[in-house]
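Appendix B, record 7
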Amino acid sequence: MSALVLVADADPFNLRMLSELCATLGYEVMTAADGGAVLDAMARQRPSLVLMDSALPVMDGIKVLGILKADSGLRDVPVLLVTQEDDVEGRARGMAMGANDCVHKPYRPLEIQQRLRDVVKLTNHESANDVDDQRQIADPLTHLGTANQMRISLDYEFTRAVRYKHALSCVVVSCLNYTELAHGLGASAPDQVIAPIANTIKGGIRTVDHLFRSEMFEFTVLLPETSHDGARVVVERLRATLREHAVQTSAGRPVIAVAGASYPRETVNDGDALYASARRALL
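Structure tokens (predicted):
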């Protein structure tokens, strides 16, 4: 039986995004847009886990958490509390009141999925096979986000950029001769080529950036609140770092291309179009 997750956020877009993340893990989802609706929903059906924004309207998430922990029938339901990144006091209050963990906005889809999976595993709502199956959480070779998570993140970050008039940049890194290298290296090609490239990219970006293995031999970096000029600096830094740390395999050296695109510089209407623009720049 799959876990039932109650997602509570006042923003309809966030509700949809979080629901999609839960669905990709195979979880059932019910939603609430305010604190009162959380309590109403839990009175009808007990969820396996609650993912709840601390700043809910009507009754905020901290008050709802206090009510849940005071109820003998609901206090054992795990709660992931969402706070703003700089709300240290809110996180401390939430943990003191019994939240199992805290995550912060802006949301990082891969982090949300990992935290959800960790809590659900601890409450024994997954079978052993489910626990061992990490394909939906992260790429098994590089431990980066997957292509599906990249699409969700693109949608989320692009919507945030438009709503708050922020810049957003997308950088794509591709190994142009991977097919040739793989032919010569065989089964060891991913470990000899892909893994070192992933590790090099990780060292060249910020902790707030999102890194995904978007294709077999391609990586995508999302740079929130980063303009065209900022993205250009990242592109040049990655090119130099990847050249410097390029591995020499028995089949030759990887040939790496790095390119980017930025909103609002590019005339694009959604995240997929921004990604496509960055990929075209590789050619």
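Remarks on this record: The chain has two domains: 4-132, 147-280. The radius of gyration is 21 Å.
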